[in-house]
Amino acid sequence: MKALVTEILGLPAFDEAVMDAQIEYASILNGTVIFHFRDGHEILNTYQDKRRGVKWSAERREKQCQAIKDSWTDERRAAMSERMRQIRGEKKWPKQ
């Protein structure tokens, strides 16, 4: 967002004071930012989300799903059940 503001205002570096003085608010929807300026004009700008990492292959996804399933041992299930009983006992649930 700072990079978009810097670009829209034509600044060499981000300056929050300049931004606050000129931009009233910004609205964001579907890769589009509309900057609403205090003097009434608007500037529309588009952006792309940065993808982080590499998309998993079907093989990698299957391997991860299997690892998660394998991690739920009977011992772990029992411990989680006990923990949930404890949480339910401490919480004040509304009567139905």
Summarize this entry quickly.
With 96 residues, this protein is α+β, with helices and mostly antiparallel strands.
Polypeptide structure, described:
The protein is an alpha+beta fold. It has a domain at 2-46. It contains four helices and three strands, in the order H-H-E-E-E-H-H. It has helices spanning 2-9, 16-22, 58-71, 74-90, and strands at 23-29, 32-37, 42-46. A hairpin with a 4-residue loop joins strand 2 and strand 3 (42-46). The protein is elongated, with a radius of gyration of 25 Å. The model has no long low-confidence stretch (mean pLDDT 88).
Summarize the SSE layout with pairings.
Layout: H1 2-9, H2 16-22, E1 23-29, E2 32-37, E3 42-46, H3 58-71, H4 74-90
Antiparallel strand pairs: 1-2, 2-3
What Rg is obtained from the alpha carbons, in whole angstroms? 25 Å
Strand order of the largest sheet: 1-2-3
Q: How many beta-strand segments?
A: 3
Morphology call: elongated
Give the DSSP E fraction (strand runs of 2 or more residues): 15-25%
| Helix and strand run | HHEEEHH
What is the residue-averaged pLDDT?
A: 88
Structural class, from secondary structure content?
alpha+beta
